[in-house]
Amino acid sequence: MSVNHSISLQDITIRHDLKPGDMGYILHMHGDIYYRENGYGFEFEQYVANSLLEFYRRFDPLKDKVWICEYNDEIIGALFLVDRVDAAQLRYFLLKSEYRGMGLGKKLMDEFMEYLTKSGY
Question: Which of 49, 59, 77, 103 could form a disulfide with 69 if both were Cys (CB 3.0 to 4.6 A apart)?
Answer without folding.
Answer: 77
